Structure prediction request, 302 residues.
Amino acid sequence: MPPLAKYAGLLMPNGERRIAGYTEASRGCRHLCRHCPVVPIYNGQFRVVQPDVVLGDVAAQVAAGAQHITFGDPDFFNGPSHAMRIVSALHEAHPQLTYDVTIKVEHLLKHRELVPRLARTGCAFVISAVESIDDAVLTIFDKGHTRADFVEAVKMCRDAGVTLTPTFVAFHPWLTLASYCDLLDTIDALDLVDHVAPIQLAIRLLVPNGSRLLELDAMRAHVGAFDAATLTYRWTHPDPRVDELQAEVMTLVGTRPKADRRELFAEISRLAHERAGLPRAADTRPARARATVPYLDEPWYC
Ligand code: SF4
Prediction:
């Protein structure tokens, strides 16, 4: 395989680029969120990878130059004791190594006493699949958290010294132009603009074969034929203006992968508020030379 330096790397706020590696401490997921493509494959099953295997994999990657490890577990806190055993041993063996993990809002709040320990063992950031800030949509997704839980998790992670990197299913059949503006305004109000990879503002709900969303009339009402090329069901929004906005946002994001996150966010926000006919608060925070949080230079999304 090509050397690790050829893959995505971690950009630190001080401009340093750290060579990143990848491993998994578990496979599958205990949960059954309706929108999730992991569910049709694992159906609530979760398996740990033995610690010596994980640590051996990390040691080999460190020897090959890795300075940061992405844990690709669908949810790192499906097995919190196992997860903490891994990162404690990893930090002891490689004190300079940083890492990132994915943890759902529900688990962050349930195991909040572990979050400062993540910070102390080199966790550069935690990805969390927030998906939506609309409680009705979160119920459809069976996501296990509310808008208020998300806001609480943002504060808790900040207090614990951990960077939270939310991901979203920005476009889905229950979105309105106004609720998209609410999503953007909330990200801004929580001072998360630097934390959110711009692609997250363009992502459209994925409905793979076996998706639990297909159990719902609310979803089936919007679904068309199965597309064998993308292995997903096509869906259209009842308001064509929402689909048009999604295409415009995707063009903005997709043609400028290296653009400054704040500039791009402001452009998307201006466009969305214009389309919704809503006033937009003026930019209060100045543009910065670079983001203030660490992030991988190739954004993660599913
Ligand atoms: S969204 Fe996350 S927590 Fe929910 S089933 Fe998928 S991997 Fe598990």
Notes: The chain has a mean pLDDT of 94. Residues 171-288 form one domain. Residues 29, 31, 33, 36, 38-39, 74-75, 104, 129 surround iron/sulfur cluster (CB under 6 Å).
